[in-house]
Amino acid sequence: MARKLIECVPNISEGRDPLKIKQVTDVVESVEGVMLLNVDPGKATNRTVITFAGEPDAVCEAAFQVVKKAAEVIDMSKHKGEHPRFGATDVCPLVPVANMTMEETVAYARKLGQRIGEELGVPIYLYENAAQKPERQNLATVRSGEYEGLKDKLSNPEWAPDFGPAEYNDNVARTGVTAVSARDFLVAYNINLNTTSTRRANAIAFDVRERGRVKREGNPLTGKPVKDAHGNPVHIPGLLKAVKGIGWFIEEYGVAQISYNLTNISITSIHEAFEKTCERADARGLRVTGSELIGLVPKKALLDAGKHFLQKQNRSIGIHEEEIMKIAVKSLGLDELAPFDVRERVIEYVLEDREKAGQQKLVDMNLSSFAHETASESPAPGGGSIAAYVGVLGVSLGTMVANLSAHKRGWDDKWEFYSDWAAKGQAYKDRLLDLVDADTEAFNKIMEAFGLPKGTDAEKAARKQAISDATKAAIMTPFEVMTTTLDSMEVMEEMAESGLPASISDAGVGALCALAAIKGAHLNVKINAKELDDPDFVNDILKRSDDLVQKASALEQAILEKVEAKL
């Protein structure tokens, strides 16, 4: 199953005392499964922006601990700073990064806000997507009056907090209140121009950004601004939604840039902003030479860009994700000003690399090391991991045939059909790769369960339950290898039917590998089920796995008959 990731970006009201800041960031690093990504203190604002990410439950725990520690070390009655604020932890937004919907993120934000309010006694206002009242969506509205206005605010029934005490007490006088939200990922994105003119860069920014430009009477550059009935300037909307932008000159690079904030990349993506800017630059006699991403970005943002540019070239998108992102980097010119390493700039990769520091996954070994590890006297990796990897090899061959078919001369009208099949194959391959290590991890969990203490009756019961749970997991992992591999055979079947004739044998070898993987995983299901004292579960899973072997055998035979007929 794809890993769910969220980001949290709490802003604490301390930017001058490094010891206090470190006390707060230390609690983030103490939570297992959370990675501290960035700490950005500001002296003038007396405010620090902290960024961390991980799986939802772990991130929410770290967020709670941040609010708790900030309440202990920051006294809001003594706070001064240039930035609007009303709490020791002023804002605490959750941001979906990977495999999370906004609705799911909202649920986590509200649960977090409730816990903070109830356990810490800090009044909580929910804003943006998490807001429970429409008038509280805008943070500026929620924070109006700031810390100094809290006594009046909390005495007003219309401003009762969503969670926590609805009164101004000694604790609130010290901690202030906190605004919790769920919001979209914001991308800071700069586009480089072949000019030094800030005015021309601004003109393009005004063309593109949502707010557009001020409407003027007569001459659009020098005419008198048009105002509405309230005396506010009237704007001509720009071309793209959820985009803010200005032009500036960067002395370090010697060029003008357009600096964008993409406030919702599900509305306007990076590549859409880039292409629209190229279009408007060309219309003004200028050229985009490259671009620059500030900070970390979600994997999906670069994958979407890479797929977009591949599809414009009528090329298959069924290639490895890092290759897709390389296309994005080159197409967007992200490496014009400095090298751009996706392993250092994509949130998921940064988390993954930090987590596996000092440990090596089986799938990260080279072929020789994997073979040596398997042949060693250790019981893991064993047949389950090997079965999963044989499944990987099988669908990889089917995917190769799809990619070769997408590029065959004379089949230009079919490239998209084969690209879709290659993308399916890549998805199966990636899931089976995860299962290579998952099988070994499941075995290790059984060993850990057997190592639990068994002195008291309670310990014996806990140990027995842990062994049962771990054994079921060790059964279900190879069972998933079976189901995923059987599903993946659709790729080899289609390639045997319609794929590149010169590679038809590869589709056949892929089918042979798939059946071997399914039969191998079936053996692991049976040997682990033998140890489980749960007859109903065991009988059900054995019947289902027997059915999978029969279906796979029939499908493999059908694929090989198609292959043999064409050889």
Termini Cα gap: 38 Å
User: At CATH's second level, what is the architecture of the largest domain?
Assistant: Up-down Bundle
| Contiguous runs where pLDDT drops below 50 for at least 5 residues | none
Structural class: alpha+beta
Oligomer: single chain
Give the helix proportion (percent range). 40-55%
Q: Beta-sheet strand percentage? A: 5-15%
Biggest sheet record = 7 strands, mixed
CATH class of the largest domain: Mainly Alpha
Quantity of strands, as a count: 13
Number of domains: 3
Would you mind describing this structure in some detail?
This protein has 567 residues and is of the alpha+beta class. The strands form three sheets. Strands 1, 2, 3, 4, 5, 6 and 7 form a seven-stranded mixed sheet that branches. The chain has a four-stranded antiparallel sheet with strand order 11-12-8-13. 52% of the residues lie in helices and 14% in strands. It has three domains: 5-182, Formiminotransferase-cyclodeaminase, Chain B, domain 1; 187-348, 2-Layer Sandwich (Alpha-Beta Plaits), CATH 3.30.70.670; 362-566, Four Helix Bundle (Hemerythrin (Met), subunit A) (Up-down Bundle). A hairpin with a 4-residue loop joins strand 11 and strand 12. The protein is built from 18 helices and 13 strands. It is flat. The mean pLDDT is 93.
What distinguishing features does this structure have?
Formiminotransferase-cyclodeaminase, Chain B, domain 1; Alpha-Beta Plaits; alpha+beta; four-stranded antiparallel β-sheet; 567 residues; 3 domains; Four Helix Bundle (Hemerythrin (Met), subunit A); seven-stranded mixed β-sheet; single chain
